[in-house]
Request: fold
Amino acid sequence: MAVKAGTTEAQIRFSTQIIRRLGEELNPSIDQSILELVKNSYDADAKSCTVELYSITEIGGTIKIKDDGKGMDEGDIINGWLVLGESSKSNVGRTELNRIPAGNKGLGRLAALRMGHVAALESVPKNLPEARYQLEINWDEFDRAKLVEDVFLDVTRSPTGKKILPGTTITIKNLKTRIGEREAKKIARGLILLADPFEDDPNGFKPILKSKEFQDMERLVSRRYFDDAEYHLSATVDNTGFAKAAVLDYRGQVIFEAPHKEIARRRNGQKYGCPATTFDLWVFLLNSTSFSGRHTSIGEVREWLTEFGGVHLYENGLRVNPYGNAGNDWLDMNLSRAKSPEERPSTNTSIGVVKVKDSKGLLSQKTDRSGFIENDVFHEIRSFCQDALDWMAKRRIEVAEQKRRNTRETANTAAGNTKVTLQQAIKKLSRKNRKELEKAFAKFEKAQENQLTSLRSEVQLYRTLSTAGITAATFSHESRGNPLKAITQAIKSIERRTKEHLKSKYEELFEKPVQSILRAVSSLAVLGSATLKILSHEKRRVTRVEIHEVISNVLETFQPFTDGRDIILKTELTPGKPYMRSSEAAIESILTNLLNNSLVALENSVSKSREILIQTFVEQSTLSLTVADNGPGIVGIDVNDIWLPGETTNPNGTGLGLTIVRDAVHDLGGTVSAMAHGQLGGAEIIVELPIIGK
Amino acid sequence: MAVTIDNVTISKVCVIDDDETSRETMQLTVEDTKLVPISQSDSVFDLEAYLSQLRSKADAIVTDHHLRKRKNYFPVNGANFVYRCYDQKIPSVLVTRYEQADIDEIRKFRNKIPTILTPAEFTPDSLLMGLETCIREFNGVLTPIRKSWRTLVRVDDVSTKSNFFVVIPAWNKNEMISLNKNDLPEVLREMIKPDMRLHANVNIGAEHANELFFTDWEVK
Reply:
């Protein structure tokens, strides 16, 4: 039989089996499936999206996802919601709320909808708020049919009778599996973290799960213990690929900072080929010393970090799974810590947020939602974050090393030497040498005793000082109270009355003395405040301290006294802002005591002018602070003895000031020396302190 | 020797301070305002009896906050006293240095203390303005910084024994306010924990945290 030429139209058709495979196999976990639906709400400009779970601990339960977004009409449903495999990222710019759509391909939605036997959609569109659109998908019908196209769905429209608020509700009915406590917790965590809960943005997107797990977790996330972090790394890459970074202390003060070339040293300063990205990492020192005196307990912070620690990645405002999940260490922080444990955070002791603004769609997520496809752009983001971490670790190690060097140099104690003697004697242990050993023991014990005596007397010294401090504070408090109040009121009344009664004579006769009294009262008030300020708890916390700023504050406090004594205060400060990690109180006590000494010395001076000079000078990582005066100099006492407690040539002095200076300087890892007659002819004290930046 | 503010005539001003010198100097300012100071030099034991006869003695009050350093001078502190005078519509001005401890103590009375002045601020002009603010409040006219609104108050920290810290998002979401636990109704005192949302009437127009006051606490 002859064959007649001809053409028959054909098309590829999909078996209903493909629906199951696409959805379920590409998006395996329940929490990720639900998140996909929630992301749809984000794309629809919803401000909130509520997920409700009913009877989920048994098969046959229900999940309801309700948002207040712009809703959908039949066109949106048929040409958008029901279309699988098309990414909205490729064809949509920004939403009305200026959001960049999360843009999934509909596959995650498919997986979520198929969690039950029935998925129902109900939507009220913003552009037609009097209409409600409904659609129900019965998956059992698909299972019975051979091809996808064989199943017909109906989108129904019904009038609402009045304008109602737009939004979409999806109900997944008759769940095929049960959702256990663990899954519920995962859903809660996923929803909490989805829209950067650490930002506290009242206008942001707020997914909510109506469950106890969610409430507990929401409470936990909102604690935001960022202020308890020891360090905060804040790094950015701008949209031209240049990076910068800073490490801040708990008060937000910069401790270290670096420009692009320092961060990108490993890559020879080459730019980062990624969109604008920020990386914030808060590092916690979870030990009892760091947490002593704080309101927060280590346990609370540890619990918070266990739940939310790790570095989370947000693309255009939404979190991308699995970065920052437990066990996910995409920046290899734990590996780096294992290689070099010192001064490196781990995912258990830090929390971080990387935010990428990817308006051009340079990053793309894997279809199964297991993270980004690891293209060049993703590698560049990771490389930037790792470089910033490396830079921070390096700077922290430098500081730790410097501290150790200083400690080694100053740790040459009598007890240490005696211990060596003892160890040597033990080596020779034998009957014959017993006498020698006993002698060594005796020496050791004596040294111990001496050390104890010295410690006891130091404790006594500091108790005396504390008592003096408390008394001064009480007097300051009192004098700022009634006496100063009375003087102020009285002199102001005198001013008003004399002005009124004497008119022009007031200026001639009374203005000067009245103003002098008002100035003096204000100086006294400053003194009272200064004493109380020294006691401020905040000043004793170790943080970044800018030395010039402390100098300037102390000099401001002292000015009324130096003015009153006709003393010229001169400062010659090195350019820049040298800083160190210390407490403000420590630097303050060094300078305050040195200035007090100079003030006393100048009382005995008969020279024509009285001068105090404060100089700073930086050489490499050491700052020299010099306080010199033109008083009589160190006379009547050996220069080496001035540091000893109780040693003073001033009959009214305590002899404690320079002892405090010595101890405070040593505690900071510095040195202090004195010249009996320095550059101005009087005493000159030179303090050298290790700084970490200038 | 009198001023009239919104139809209220003030002539005699009672000056209360347990320190005699301070009292005398405060009287000088009252005299310079062209008003008659009445010095409260005797101790007061029965507050209710004192309040009931106060009207016949003075038209207004100027008082220090700390009234209890001298033994048995006054039964309550100045803030509490001004609060009580407010209910009786007696214009009163509190003069105090207003340090942190004072702020904590004063806050629970603050809704009925229209004016607090520091000693340096206490002048004839500020005294008159303070009295005027009181009288206007008695007539229901509140300045924006004194008007309170129902608002959400988020508990942030309850770890210290006497105080707890809150954030008022509608006022300043970045500033933590320290409040005395005793200022809360007893039922709430034991309930509060971090992140709890409470509601209270708060003068969210206040410019400084010191001026904030909280009334009608409730949990929602």
In short: Chain A touches chain B at residues 200, 202, 219, 222-223, 295-297, 480-490, 492-493, 496-497 (CB under 8 Å). The radius of gyration of chain A is 37 Å. The first helix of chain A runs from residue 16 to 26.
